[in-house]
């Protein structure tokens, strides 16, 4: 019965790869001065920096719920559901990074934001793989997989926090 439950969890937990962000020409349009671009970029960054704090709180809450589920050794469906919530909440930050990378005109700032969002996306992929591994592993080997999942979830929180720090730092420049 456990093996059947694991297989069902595996099929429910799919991941969509994101395409590379759209490249934005680095040339300044004739009607915009470079200072206007910096001001516009600052507005984008400032706007989204307010949202990152709320999302980071959600990520922390979902990570704690995942750890609680793993600690209490709840069913596979339970920790898979908690892992999904963690990924969904952190993916909001990836979406913000993607939006910013499309709208920011300064190439250096755009690169920093894109790199941070890509790092977070890689962390999310790792959580997904660790969740699948834990859900599909036999009960006698599950504790090792669950430990990897815990570490991976903590890394998501760390990279999410780093992403927020990058947005805040860039919005203040």
Question: Which percent band covers the strand fraction?
Answer: under 5%
**Rg to the nearest angstrom?**
19 Å
**Which oligomerization state do the chains in this entry correspond to?**
single chain
Counted by DSSP, the helix tally is 5
Q: How many individual β-strands?
A: 0
Low-confidence stretches: 1-33
Shape, principal axes of CA atoms: elongated
Distance between the termini: 57 Å
Write out key terms for the chains shown:
173 residues, mainly alpha, Four Helix Bundle (Hemerythrin (Met), subunit A), 5 helices, elongated, disordered N terminus
How does this model look, in words?
This protein is mainly α. The protein has one domain: Alpha-catenin/vinculin-like (Four Helix Bundle (Hemerythrin (Met), subunit A)), CATH 1.20.120.230. Helix content is 79%, strand content 0%. Helix 2 runs antiparallel to helix 3, helix 2 packs antiparallel against helix 5 and helix 3 packs parallel to helix 5. The N terminus is likely disordered.
In brief:
By secondary structure, the chain is an all-alpha fold.
What topology emerges from the helices and strands here?
Blueprint: H1 2-12, H2 34-71, H3 76-103, H4 107-136, H5 142-171
Helix pairs in contact: 2-3, 2-5, 3-4, 3-5, 4-5
């Amino acid at each position: 019965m456990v093996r059947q439950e694991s297989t069902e969890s595996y099929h429910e937990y799919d991941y969509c790869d994101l395409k590379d962000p759209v490249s934005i020409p680095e040339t300044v349009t004739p009607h915009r001065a470079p200072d206007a671009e910096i001001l516009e970029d600052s507005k984008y960054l400032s706007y989204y920096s307010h949202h990152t704090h709320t999302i980071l709180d959600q990520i922390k809450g979902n990570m704690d719920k995942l750890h609680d589920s793993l600690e209490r050794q709840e069913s596979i469906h339970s920790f898979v559901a908690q892992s999904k919530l963690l990924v969904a909440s952190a993916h909001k930050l990836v979406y913000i990074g993607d939006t910013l990378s499309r709208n920011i005109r300064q190439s250096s700032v755009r690169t920093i934001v894109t790199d941070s969002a890509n790092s977070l996306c890689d962390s999310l992929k790792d959580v997904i793989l660790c969740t699948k591994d834990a859900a599909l592993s036999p009960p006698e080997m599950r504790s090792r997989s669950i430990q990897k999942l815990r570490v991976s979830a903590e890394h998501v929180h760390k990279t999410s926090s780093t992403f927020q720090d990058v947005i805040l730092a860039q919005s203040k420049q």
